[in-house]
# Entry
Amino acid sequence: MDITIADRLGYREIALRGRVNLTSAGMLAEAVDLAVAEGQAHIVLDLGGVPTMDSTGLGALVTACRAARQAGGDLRIVKARPAVRELLERTNVVRVLPMHATAEEAFPT
# Structure
């Protein structure tokens, strides 16, 4: 999995490319932990480049959300592909991690 990080006005955008699974979920956790440590607790997670995600990936998302919220921020998902969107909806993760079409919609300025 590849990760691209960009600081925007009021939030950090973390874009993932590749599968989020047992072998790559730790990279997501590290990126979110780094953002929080650097004072960027408002995080947009761009899943547009993620074709699939397994249960380890789901756990990493929930843990990342918890870390952001404990630091006084939040984590929002954008651009989820159909297979990932269906997984998030089927497992009710969307109840705690709302999905948005764009980063600007997720954290309006």
In short: The CA atoms of residues 22 and 56 lie 5 Å apart. The chain has a mean pLDDT of 95. The longest strand covers residues 42-49. The helical segments are 25-37, 55-70, 82-90, 103-106.
